[in-house]
Write a structure and sequence with these properties.
single chain, 98 residues, alpha+beta, three-stranded antiparallel β-sheet, two-stranded antiparallel ribbon, 3 helices, 5 strands, globular, binds zinc ion
């Protein structure tokens, strides 16, 4: 499932445009916006792809921590969950020493 960041509509993983506001979901889904924000944050040194316990095998195989340039795009291609991919991005922050 994708969520449009502009109008909060839920959309199937295979749609590339929001059916409600026609935003480009490759740029404006919640996942895409969150990834762009994390990539732009210099304190984020890497990004963890976090999947739920009930995620499909495809998603589970993608779970892990990635360099910013190599983070897989959500929703994960080939996800077989009935409601769509539920994976999320989590930042790995640089430690700030006092
Ligand atoms: Zn929308
Ligand atoms: Zn999946």
């Amino acid at each position: 499932m994708q969520v449009c960041s502009k109008c909060n509509s839920n959309t199937n993983d295979d749609e590339s445009l929001c059916p409600n506001c026609h935003a480009d979901l490759t740029k404006y889904s919640m996942s895409a916006v969150s990834l762009a924000t994390l990539k732009a944050n210099p304190r984020v040194k890497a990004i963890t792809l976090s999947v739920s316990n009930t995620a499909c095998p495809t998603c589970k195989s993608m779970q892990g921590t990635y360099e910013k340039e190599f983070v897989p795009i959500l929703p994960i291609h080939g996800c077989s969950e009935p409601l769509g991919c539920t994976s999320v991005y989590q930042p790995v922050l640089l430690e700030i020493f006092p």
